[in-house]
User: Which sequence fits this backbone?
């Protein structure tokens, strides 16, 4: 019987808006007769610590390439990887429709009915304008300001509030 050496090499990378870590686990039999090597790549999604929201070192959730993804979350994450713009666009549309229906339910009196044309307009705005523009904006900001430190985060927030927010609001009010 020979010994087995296991090496794990991890490197963080940005995937969309998520910080991930690619880990390569290399197992090698140290026995001369059974000299073999197996490599497995896994991806880890970082969740910020509640005590330090800028930290990415605590409470990690691991995703393997295919088998550990199951259910709706697994399907959604695979759609985000294969079709990011389409997935984000439809997600934004559904969120806008749900938000509008919720706002109508909260603000309406018991005798008034829901305005489904308004809800359809809001869903259309999310589908045609907001979803694609947010995808492009956040990718642009990640390329222009690639660092993930506190100062760069504040710069991104300022740019979003000074440039993207007013442009988005003007477009919303024009439509």
Assistant:
């Amino acid at each position: 019987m020979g010994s087995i050496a296991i090496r794990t090499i991890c490197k963080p990378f940005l995937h969309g808006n998520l910080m991930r870590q690619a880990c390569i686990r290399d197992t090698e039999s140290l026995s001369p007769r059974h000299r073999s090597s197996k490599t497995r790549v896994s991806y880890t999604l970082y969740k910020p610590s509640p005590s330090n929201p800028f930290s990415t070192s605590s409470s990690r959730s691991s995703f393997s390439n295919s088998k550990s993804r199951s259910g709706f979350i697994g399907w959604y994450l695979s759609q985000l990887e294969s079709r990011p713009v389409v997935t984000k666009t439809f997600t934004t549309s559904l969120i806008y429709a749900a938000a509008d229906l919720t706002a109508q339910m909260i603000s309406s009196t018991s005798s008034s009915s829901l305005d489904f044309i308004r809800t359809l307009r809001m869903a259309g705005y999310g589908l045609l304008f907001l979803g694609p523009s947010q995808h492009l904006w956040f990718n642009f900001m990640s390329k222009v300001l690639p660092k993930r430190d506190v100062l760069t985060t504040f710069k991104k927030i300022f740019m979003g509030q000074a440039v993207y927010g007013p442009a988005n609001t003007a477009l919303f009010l024009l439509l």
Summary: Residues 4-68 form one domain. The beta strands are 4-15, 18-29, 37-46, 60-63. Confidence is low (pLDDT under 50) at residues 46-50, 52-67. The longest strand covers residues 4-15.
